[in-house]
Design goal:
The chain is an alpha+beta fold. The protein has twelve helices and 28 strands. The chain has four domains: about 110 residues, no CATH class; about 220 residues, 3-Layer(aba) Sandwich (Rossmann fold); about 70 residues; about 90 residues, Immunoglobulin-like. Helix 5 packs across helix 12. It is globular.
Amino acid sequence: MKCFTLIFCNPVFRVCRVRLPAFYVSLLFGAACLPSADAEVRLAPGFSSGMVLQRDVPSRISGWAAEGEKIQVQLGEHVVAEAVGRGEAAMWAVALPVFKAGSLPDLVIRGNNTITLTNLLAGDVWVCSGQSNMEMTLAKGPWCDYGGAQDADKEVAAANHPQLRLFNAREPSGWIACTPETARKFSAAAYFFGRDLSKDLGVPIGLVMAAVGGTAAEYWLPRSTLESRPGFAEAVTAARLTLEELGPADAAFRKALADWQKASKQAEADGVPPPPKPVTTLDKDQQERMASARVLENAGLYFAKRIEPLTAMPIKGAIWYQGEANITRHAEYADLMTRLIASWRKAWNQEEMPFLIMQLVNFGSRAPAGDHLWAELRAAQQAVVDSVPNSGLAVGIDIGDPKNIHPANKQEVGRRLARLALNLVYGREVVCSGPKPVDVRFEAGATVVEFDQPVVLQTGEESGFELADREGVFHPAKAQAGGNTIILSTPEVPEPSEIRYAWRDNPASTVSNAEGLPAAPFRKGRQQP
C-alpha cells in the first residue's frame, strides 16, 4: 500500500510525523467525497461532529483540499497544526495532541472554507465488522427485516447513553449519540458490546459499524493480499468463466425471488395465500460454483469501501462476527483470517491492534451424521486465535437458535465480547472464557480430560462428548465431572483414538464454569509414540 508522510510543527507541540495511506478517492469514496469545484476542504469518513477520538495515543485528522491550499487546524483557542492540500488523489493529514478520556474543545479546520466539529469526546473507538449477525439491528424495521434482539422494545427504550457514540460506515450522517431512536437502527451485537464496556470502564466508547450481510471473509481483505496467495489469479479466471456460464440463470432466479418476496408481503397484507416460491434451475454443484465465483470476483470490495477509509483515524481494536458465508470453504478460513488481521493492523499502522472474534453459535441440525461444516469453521476460528497474538475468541455454542441463523440473544454476544476485551485488552481481572482442556489422557477403560478451571457439567441424555474407535468412528460417551476433571467412557470404544466435544452444527453444550461461560468445541487425538 502506497503511503505518504506529512511533517509539521507548531509552537505548542513538537515536530510530528503522520504516515497514512494515499487513497484513490474516486475508487474508495465516490464523487460525494471529492473536493468540489470551489476547492472546499473535505474531511475523511469517520470525522464529524459528535465523534469519539481515540484516547491516550496521538490522534489525527485528515481529508482533502486543492493542491497547495493552506489548511489550519484549531483546537479550542489554539492552532495545533497546519497542512497543505494535496489535490484529489491524496489526503492531507495532521497529528493532534494525546487526549485523556472526556469532553474535548471544538475542532475548527480552516482552508478556503471552515469546518467546525463540535460535541467531541475522547475515549475508545472499536470497529465492529463482519456479516449479517454483526449487521443485525437492535430493533426490526424496514432498515433490517431480520433485526430485532431479544426484548427489543425494552432494550430500545433504555438505550439512552450520551457517552456512547455510533457511526455507521455505510451512512453519510456521521457520528450520532446513542439514543433510543438511533440505537434501534444500529448493530445489536455492537451496541451491547459498547454499552457494557462503557459501563465497566466509565469512559466514552465509539462504535463504528462496518458489516454487510452475506459477505465472505474475502470481501474484507485487501485484494492485493489475496492476489499474493498461490493460485488466486487462476481461480479468478475460472470464476469469471463460471459467471459467464451460469450468471444469466442465477440473475433470473434472483429477480424472480425478489419479485416473489414483494408479492408475498403484499399477499400477507391482503390476507391471501402467497404465490409459489420460485425454484432455481441451477443444481447444488452449480449453486456452489456461483457462490464461490461471486466471492472471488468481489474479493477486497468491502475492505476498500468500508475499512480502508476508516484507517485515517486511530482505533482501540476490532470485533468480528462472521464465518457463516465461509463454512463450505472452512479449510481456507484460518489462513484468510490470519491474513485479514495482519492486513488490518498494517493499514492502521497498529501492529498490536486487538482483534476479538465471535465464534459461530450453534445452528441447524444435531444429527451425528453429516459434514459438520459449522464445527469445522469454529475449529478454524479457534486456530486463528491460538496462533495470532492479541486476538481473542468469544464462545457462543450455547446461545444460538437451531432454526434461526440470526439468533435474537445478542445481549450475550455483546457481554462475552466485552468480557473478553476487559480481560485481554484492558487487563481487568474478569473471567472471559469457559473451561479450556489442558490435558487429555487415554487410560484403560476411561478417557480423562483436565481443564484449566473447575467445570460445571449439565446432566442429560447427551454429554456432547464423543470417543472414536480405531476406525475413526465416533460414539457418544458418558461423562462424570469432579473439580477440573471430566472422565469419559463408553463400552463401544474400549481404546479411544480421539475425543471431540460439541462437534456438530448444533451440538449439546454441557460444560461451563461457575460464571456460565461455556467450554469451546474441541477435538484431540491420541498422541503417537
